[in-house]
Inverse folding.
């Protein structure tokens, strides 16, 4: 049960957010409205800097003007939802309602994003009822939907139902001059056959964040060979955006914030001028750069993970400490603006905090320019 003071805060927040959106939607059709849009953008930036702005789920960005003067690609926006960890509704209605909230957030965007990425871990234990419930909710997304698989979706039946519902688990596509690649990065070496584990025992082990009986995540030989073939005919000047559930680098092995063959994947990507990896699994604001590759973690709609205890990539601006009395603290969805030069600006739409942007300029300058606003509370 939520304490009354938090319920009151939630209702106040929802009312303020509703008013904010009404005002935003009224700005789009007239010159006066355009001037008001710019004014609201300035207000958002100013208030965010002082951390006194009413929390909301959207940040105003003029996507059309995001293109650089010498742009070759057309700027555009896509949105993401990730890590919903659904149980059947009779067991946990809250996670279901939080995914529905994220879908409503994205559907309210005007203009709509070019597509929506779902970042994996739709289900908690890969149960048919969990995956089918998630598929039913995601059918409400207005924009085209791109799916990525997570380990919680996979290890009960080794992906059979997920593939039946959503299609191939690794693939690529081109969109407005950018080459997108979706990987299945949470393969594991067989730890179950020799121990004669049942499918559910295997699934339960993999679902444990720190269960050391499982092996490390990896993309694996089959997909690495496919990736090499996929990239072979792509010009090195073409911007590349990769979607992976686990981060494609080695952050913290005990929690599988880690991909075992990340070095080999990075070697395939390094020849390209502009590469961005967008990943799930870590449930937090997480930023990294390795060579020319920019990495961005996605938020969860279910729960936030604490930061790994061994330290963080130096470019990560930590999210505020979640409020333990608020069930949606540290959660959210997000938007990614693909700029005219192929780099991306990442927007974290934290449901109960100010939105937070991590720009390409911040990563390109190794943290010297365009710093995200620092938080006032320590993370946990």
């Amino acid at each position: 049960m939520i304490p009354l003071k938090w319920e009151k805060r939630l209702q106040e927040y929802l009312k303020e957010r509703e008013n904010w959106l009404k005002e935003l939607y009224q700005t789009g059709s007239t010159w006066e409205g355009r001037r008001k849009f710019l004014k609201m953008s300035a207000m958002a930036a100013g208030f965010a800097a002082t951390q006194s702005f009413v929390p909301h789920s959207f940040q105003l960005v003029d996507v059309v003007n995001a293109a650089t003067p010498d742009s070759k690609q057309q700027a555009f926006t896509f949105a993401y939802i990730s890590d919903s960890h659904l149980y059947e509704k009779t067991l946990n209605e809250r996670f279901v309602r939080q995914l529905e909230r994220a879908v409503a957030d994205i559907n309210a965007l005007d203009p709509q994003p070019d597509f929506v990425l779902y970042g994996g871990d739709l289900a908690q234990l890969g149960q048919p009822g969990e995956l089918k419930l998630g598929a039913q909710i995601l059918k409400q997304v207005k924009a085209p939907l791109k799916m990525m698989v997570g380990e919680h979706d996979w290890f009960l039946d080794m992906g059979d139902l997920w593939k039946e519902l959503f299609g191939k688990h690794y693939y690529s596509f081109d969109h407005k001059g950018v080459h997108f690649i979706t990987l299945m990065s949470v393969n594991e070496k067989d730890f179950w056959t020799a121990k004669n584990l049942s499918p559910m025992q295997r699934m339960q082990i993999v679902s444990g964040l720190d269960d050391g009986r499982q092996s490390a995540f990896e993309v694996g030989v089959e997909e690495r060979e496919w990736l090499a073939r996929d990239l072979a005919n792509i010009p090195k000047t073409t911007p590349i955006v990769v979607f992976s559930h686990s981060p494609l680098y080695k952050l913290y092995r005990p929690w599988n914030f880690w991909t075992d063959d990340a070095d080999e994947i990075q070697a395939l990507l390094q020849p390209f001028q502009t590469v961005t990896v967008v990943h799930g699994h870590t449930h937090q604001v997480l930023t990294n750069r390795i060579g020319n590759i920019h990495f961005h973690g996605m938020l969860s709609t279910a729960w936030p993970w604490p930061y790994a205890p061994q330290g963080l990539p130096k470019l990560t601006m930590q999210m505020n400490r979640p409020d333990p009395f608020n069930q949606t603290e540290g959660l959210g969805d997000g938007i990614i603006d693909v700029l005219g030069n192929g780099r991306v600006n990442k927007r974290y739409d934290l449901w109960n905090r100010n939105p937070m942007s991590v720009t390409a300029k911040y990563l390109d300058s190794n943290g010297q320019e365009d710093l995200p606003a620092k938080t006032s509370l320590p993370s946990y």
Notes: The two ends are 23 Å apart (CA to CA). Residues 73 and 340 are 5 Å apart (CA to CA).
